[in-house]
Specification:
With 979 residues, this protein is of the alpha/beta class. Helix content is 33%, strand content 14%. It has 27 helices and 29 strands. The chain has an eight-stranded mixed beta sheet, with helices on both faces. The C terminus is likely disordered.
Length: 979
């Protein structure tokens, strides 16, 4: 990358020869910027953004990337005066949003900007592809830095010593992960990697999608042709794309073969239509030409003068077995030990993870599933191979045993990609933490009201007909927009609807028949259908588009849209049928032209399917989704969120019809049916995912130049918002045990209290010191926290306990699920080198004032208010605390805010706060003497550790091996407390 240097001197020197007499004044430059010269603004946006994002280049004088300080230095080096700087800042502001989050072990820096530039060929070309697709300068710069973060953590392909690195890149569902690994492959090939193996899904449909994308945007026409003359049919036998792909002319072209320009060619070992079938021409396919035959292949003299090989293979036992067998045939010649190789595992949490229970291993030796074992063999056969997994659902990958050196745990790095601009994700379908009251929400300020349509059993209408009508209307609006803005036509090449209700193929066929019957049930423009479409437009699509379409062309009325409805219906009906069933066990089940988004000009279809549409497969033009399938694994559910993705030009038309009362377990003779809300489930798992990313961000900063956590310490960062949805399948979580999670200054509210009456009594007895510490006089507590700005007020009884006294109580408690609270308890206990700096705790027992309040004496305590709560999440409680009780507790623990004079007198820098809730369930009642049976009381609580309890030292999650013999305790020995 060229450094910024005096612009006007350089421009004058160039212009003197090519453009003599041209006006190069600062005033003219500024005037063109202010006038909005598109080409000039775009050019300088890309150039300034590249310099803004550069990671510690030599010219930067250690100015941080993406800061005003860096931008000022750039202007200084360019010699720009103040008015020109202001014009450039207005045209291309500094993009300060954080980039990718990196958790890494130690590595030796080798991929410097100078090293990257030395042999740069494929990356600059791919960058041009991205820019040509319309990606903003900021998006390209983010991709540049994110791919640098991956490549620099791989082993140096030129080094003498063989070293393997294993990493994981975490993106979002349908958010551009392929673009990232294409960029990584481009940079890796430029740097010297000469064998790239892409594991591309479990179906040839998915593998072919990935192959074509790499062929089109990275490998290019000249490498595909391999010297063949595209005008001579006789030389094109066996070469794909030429003559059967309408977009062949848009495939990247280098002008001449890369080898003729001094750069490596890329030889394909797989094609669009052919998965790996064997090393073509046998061993010779991996015979790399050496300029110096006495030196090894990884010697720079050889490495940069030989072609790279690339293959895109299915994660299929037969295919990978064939590849491993072929490599073993070559192994004895020592060639494999010299090849710098890169293995990219797309959807790395699918099929790649070992799901065999360690208890079934023989003699402690790992027993592996087929695909996991074959990947392990590839890594063994290729000692210079690097492994990089890609996924949007990383939980299974971070639960892999870090101690198994032959497995795929990302020991060297874990990178969380930023949420890309223009992406429709959870924030576009859920009103997470919306400050707008429910009564004031409209389609303009509520994502749920704009895009989500609930399907309720109790309503007696499954809304499937409405979803089909929405699909038709959305298609008509797309055609209207294309007619009024020709630039939008290409974006609307495909228009699809996805229906996902079941995993069973027989049910797919029945549902497809029902949809087809609905679709053809009346004449295309019958009065009944038109009335239904008009009502839907005027009550739904019209108001939403008016509020959210922005500058996009939008019909002013249904009558203006009506002429486009017939055309939309014709496009949907074109071909065999409007409905396509996507399922099956054989590859032939997916060999349908209407599923080929690359080669079919217009796919306007309704797709009915299940699992095969929920992994890796991109449903282009997806606008309406009808989703009612249940699953109890968060990663599986997340992958089914095909409605996430890029919807440029039609975000306002996207609709999600989703089950809000789906039966998880049917009723039995003794138990009622259990229903779940799939919309809330998606919200919960998205919160799990965001929590994971936030924790990565929290621990990504270096402390004294060293990482706070290494990837091996990441598994404890996975959370679980809903008890019925596990982060991943049980057979992917054998190693997942969370031991400690520091949460100082954070509200912690356990909900996994026991049900056994004897355990409840033991817990009440454990809390006896706290009950005795409560003073008899009620006090009124009032506080306003800075973050909420809302005044909260309530009455309570107060008491204090030393930190050691409270820990002894907490260690004696019985739990329904000990692992829910034990991580926090471990943090409160601390360690010798990282103690929890807490002196005492304020015990707050909220007291009710209502005439209907329930009070009782508990084991001789003074009368206390009882809270009536229910176990809303299986055997777990829902929320126990009241929002108005939290402010005072958090203020006492040091969270910024303003309490009344009395509350402020309670604040201590090393004091925590615990809110105690004696909870009763169902028909529990105090006895006539004012007492209550301790076997009927759940002693629930919430706590806030003092915000500075970690003393400013390193804080990190800790994990342990599960002790199955102590599942009824908090897994902490009370005898160790205070030692």
């Amino acid at each position: 990358m060229r450094r910024p240097r005096p612009f006007f001197d350089t421009a004058a020197e160039i212009a003197e020869e090519d453009h003599p007499g041209v006006d190069l004044s600062s005033e003219t430059f500024r005037a063109l910027l202010v006038s909005g010269d598109i080409a000039l603004v775009d050019l300088w946006s890309r150039k300034l953004t590249t310099w803004d994002f550069a990671d510690a280049p030599r010219w930067s004088r250690e100015t941080p990337a993406r800061t005003d300080e860096r931008r000022r230095l750039i202007y200084d080096r360019l010699g720009f005066e103040e008015d020109l700087r202001k014009a450039l800042d207005a045209a291309a502001p500094v993009h300060k949003e954080p980039g990718s989050v990196v958790i890494t072990g130690g590595f030796t820096p080798w991929y410097t900007s100078e090293r990257a530039a030395r042999h740069a060929f494929y990356w600059p070309k791919y960058r041009e592809v991205l820019e040509g697709k319309g990606l903003s300068a900021t998006a390209v710069a983010h991709l540049d830095t994110a791919t640098d973060a991956v490549v620099e953590r791989l082993a140096d392909p030129e080094q003498d010593t063989a070293r393997q690195a294993k990493g994981l890149v975490v993106g979002y569902v349908q958010s551009g992960k392929t673009a990232n690994f294409t960029g990584v492959a481009a940079k890796a090939i430029d740097a010297g990697y000469r064998l790239v193996i892409v594991l591309g899904g479990t179906l040839n449909l998915l593998r072919a999608q990935t192959q074509r994308r790499l062929d089109k945007e990275l490998i290019g026409q000249e490498n595909i042709l391999g010297g063949a003359d595209p005008s001579d049919p006789d030389t094109l036998v066996g070469i794909d794309y030429v003559g059967d792909d309408d977009e062949w002319d848009s495939f990247i072209s280098f002008g001449h073969r890369p080898s003729q320009q001094g750069y490596p060619d890329i030889d394909r070992l797989t094609t669009r239509d052919k998965d790996y079938v064997g090393l073509q021409q046998g061993i010779r396919a991996l015979e790399f030409e050496k300029r110096n035959k006495r030196a090894r292949l990884h010697d720079p003299e050889n490495l940069h003068h030989t072609a790279a090989r690339i293959m895109v293979v299915k994660k299929n036992k037969a295919v990978l077995t064939r590849l491993v067998k072929n490599l073993k045939q070559i192994q004895g010649q020592g060639l494999l030990a010299e090849i710098p190789a890169l293995i990219i595992d797309d959807e790395s949490d699918q099929a790649s993870v070992n799901t065999i229970d360690p208890k079934k291993w023989e003699g402690g030796n790992p027993k592996r599933t087929a695909i996991n074992g074959l990947i392990s063999q590839l890594l063994t056969l290729l000692p210079r191979a690097q492994y990089v997994g890609y996924t949007a659902t990383p939980f299974a990958n971070v639960f892999v045993d870090p101690g198994d050196s032959e497995d795929i745990f990302p020991n060297d790095f874990l990178i969380s990609l930023r949420r890309p601009d223009g992406y429709m994700g959870v924030q576009e379908f859920h009103d997470l933490d919306s400050p707008v009251p429910l009564a004031d929400r409209t389609v303009a300020n509520s994502q749920e009201l704009a895009h989500v349509r609930g399907v309720h059993h109790s309503a007696g209408d499954d809304r499937l007909q409405e979803a089909l009508d929405s699909f038709l209307l959305a298609g008509a609006i797309k055609l209207y927009r294309a007619d009024h803005d020709s630039r939008l036509g290409k974006r609307f090449r495909h228009h699809t609807m996805l229906v996902h209700e079941s995993v069973r193929m027989v049910e797919h066929a029945e549902l497809a028949l029902r949809i087809s019957t609905m679709w053809h049930s009346s004449a295309p423009l019958s009065p009944t259908r038109l009335a239904r479409l008009r009502r839907l437009y005027e009550t739904d699509f019209g108001p939403v588009s008016e509020a959210r379409a922005g500058d996009l062309p939008t019909p002013s009325s249904f009558d203006e849209l009506r002429p486009h409805i017939s055309r939309a219906r014709q496009l949907i009906n074109r071909g065999d049928a409007p409905v396509i069933v996507v399922n099956g066990d054989k590859e032939s089940d997916y060999a349908k032209s209407d599923l080929d988004f690359d080669r079919t000009p217009h796919v306007w279809k309704i797709l009915v399917g299940g699992t095969k549409l929920s992994r890796g497969f991109t449903v282009e033009g997806l606008t309406v989704t009808y989703y009612r399938r249940k699953t109890q694994q968060a990663d599986t559910l997340m992958q089914m969120g095909r409605w996430f993705g890029f919807r440029e030009g039609y975000q306002d038309l996207v609709r999600l019809y989703i089950g809000r009362e789906e039966i998880l377990r049917p009723a039995t003779a003794t138990r009622p049916a259990v229903t779940v809300d799939l919309y809330e489930a998606f919200e919960a798992i998205c919160q799990d995912e965001e929590d994971f990313r936030k924790e990565l961000t929290r621990y990504s900063a270096l402390i004294d130049g060293h990482p706070q956590v290494t990837p091996a310490q990441i598994p404890p960062l996975v959370s679980q918002h809903l008890p019925w949805i596990k982060p991943s399948a049980r057979n992917k979580m054998f190693n997942a045990v969370l031991d400690e999670m520091r949460s100082h200054g954070t509200w912690v509210e356990p909900t996994a209290y026991p049900k056994d009456p004897n355990d409840l009594r033991l817990n009440v007895e454990a809390w006896s010191p706290a009950l005795k510490a409560l003073r008899s006089d009620r006090v009124t507590l009032s506080c306003t926290l800075e973050e909420s700005g809302r005044p909260d007020k309530h009455e309570a009884l107060l008491g204090t306990l030393s930190h050691e006294e409270l820990l002894r109580i907490l260690c004696d408690l019985r739990w329904l699920e000990p692992d829910q609270f034990s991580p926090h308890l471990r943090a409160l206990i601390g360690t010798d080198d990282n103690p929890a700096l807490i002196d005492d705790w304020l015990i707050i027992a909220p007291q009710q004032k209502s005439d209907r309040r329930e009070e009782a004496t508990i084991l001789g305590s003074r009368p206390l208010s009882l809270a009536r709560r229910a176990r809303r999440r299986g055997d777990f409680f829902g929320a126990i605390s009241e929002p108005r009780h939290r402010s005072v507790a958090r203020r006492v623990a040091g969270v910024p805010g303003a309490g009344d004079e009395f509350v402020e007198s309670l604040v201590r820098s090393r004091r925590g706060a615990l809110v105690l809730y004696p909870v009763i369930e169902d028909d529990s009642r105090p006895l006539s003497d004012g007492t209550i049976d301790p076997r009927r009381v759940v002693m629930a609580f919430a706590l806030v550790a003092p915000a500075l309890a970690d003393g400013g030292s390193r804080t990190y999650p800790r994990f342990r091996t599960r002790d199955s013999s102590r599942r009824d305790s908090a897994i902490v020995d009370r005898n160790n407390v205070g030692k």
